[in-house]
Amino acid sequence: MNDFKLSVIIPCYQETENLRILLPLLISKNNEPFLEIIIVDASEDYSTLRYLQKDFKFCRSCTGKSFIETKEDVHACRNATEKNEIIVKYKKEERKERGFLMNKGASYAEGNIYFFLFADAIPPDFYSTMISYEFLDGSTFLSFEHTYNTDIPALNMIADAANYRLKNFDFFYGDHGIVVSRELFETINGFPDIPIFEDAAFTKQANSLAKLKVIDKKIIISDRKYEEFGVYKVTSVNLLVTLLWKLHFNPTFIKKTYSKFLRKTPKDSFKEENSSRELSPQS
Q1: Residues 6 or more apart from 116 whose CB is under 8 A from it?
Q2: DSSP secondary structure string, 85-121?
Q3: Model-level pTM?
Q4: C-alpha distances out from residue 158 to 144, 220, 235, Å
Q5: Does residue 196 lie within any of the structural domains?
Q6: For burial by CB atoms within 10 Å, which of 111, 182, 196, 247 has the most?
Q7: What is the CATH number of the domain that holds 74?
Q8: Hey, which bits of the chain come out as E strands?
Q9: The total number of structural domains that make up the chain
Q10: Residue 197 resides in a domain
Q11: Considering only CA atoms, which of 111, 112, 77 is closest in space to residue 91?
């Protein structure tokens, strides 16, 4: 593969505050000549689009309109300089299933490499250069190790276990970041249209077709679910639904079971809705 164009695809549900942190970092940490960021938003309001139109410095600094609308109701902003070309796209969707949102994002991508990233995750410095190096070296399926944004010992242990699983099992979850070539993504026919474990099912199939390359740098992920429900409860529920998935229970039943035990409370509206990752266990 002698041409490298990276599309970062971010599925969202009420993630405006996290995007305020993530989007500038995606741009500042990029060293490649082409970068495309695609936000597929299932939020119940337009706060993310308003942020992009009014407050996101990158889009406001572009020539002409700060954020223009293109085909298929995709809002897009393109900024090309002598150094690089950066594109930011936004698409509003009604369905909230994360697999559906990620497939939609891929359908709007101009790149030949897809990086599926959650809105509450922070990639390492020079992430795009590391991805480029591995793909130009022949890899078609990549991921990162991860760590939590906290020094709580129990979460450090959970992260270590997740990183071990990443390297030694045939599946992993999307909070590691899923990087895949367009060709491999299309061969798999994208993420399955199921309400939970779409990331595990996708990575399991990708692992059967391509050798996973784990980049030895860490994505920083949020501990918000553990903070809200407690380490013991979240870990127990994650283990339970993973067992149900391994035993081939119906995904709809697994999702209902997961939601029953980790039902969000209305006392904190940000935590209640700010969860694009609620559809699968974090570890």
Answers
A1: 9, 11, 102, 105, 174, 177, 178, 179, 180, 199
A2: EEEEEEEE-S---HHHHHHHHHHT--SSEEEE--TTE
A3: 0.90
A4: 15, 13, 8
A5: yes
A6: 196
A7: 3.90.550.10
A8: 6-12, 34-41, 68-69, 75-80, 85-92, 113-116, 121-122, 141-148, 178-181, 213-221
A9: 1
A10: yes
A11: 77
Residue 149 and residue 154: Cα distance in Å, rounded?
13
Q: Which of 7, 94, 43, 102 is nearest to 275 (CA)?
A: 43
User: 22 in a domain, yes or no?
Assistant: yes
Q: What does the block give as tokens for 67?
A: 């954020």
Residue 40: phi and psi, rounded to 5, are -110, 115
Task: Return contacts of 126-130, CB within 8 angstroms, 24+ apart.
Answer: 126/29, 126/31, 127/29, 127/30, 127/217, 128/6, 128/29, 128/30, 128/31, 128/32, 128/35, 129/31, 129/32, 130/215, 130/217
Does 88 map to a domain?
yes
- Any idea what the Cα angle at residue 74 is, between residues 202 and 33, rounded to 5°? 75
Query: 177: which DSSP letter?
Result: -
Residue 80: what pLDDT? Answer: 77
DSSP annotation of 212 = -
Q: Which helix (H) or strand (E) holds 134?
A: helix 127-136
In the predicted structure, residue 252 carries a pLDDT above the cut 50: yes
Looking at the chain, the whole-number percentage of residues with pLDDT higher than 70 is 88
| Mean per-residue pLDDT over the chain, rounded | 89
Mean pLDDT of the region 103-109: 97
CA torsion through residues 78, 179, 41, 19, sign? negative
Q: Residue holding tokens 């242990």?
A: 157
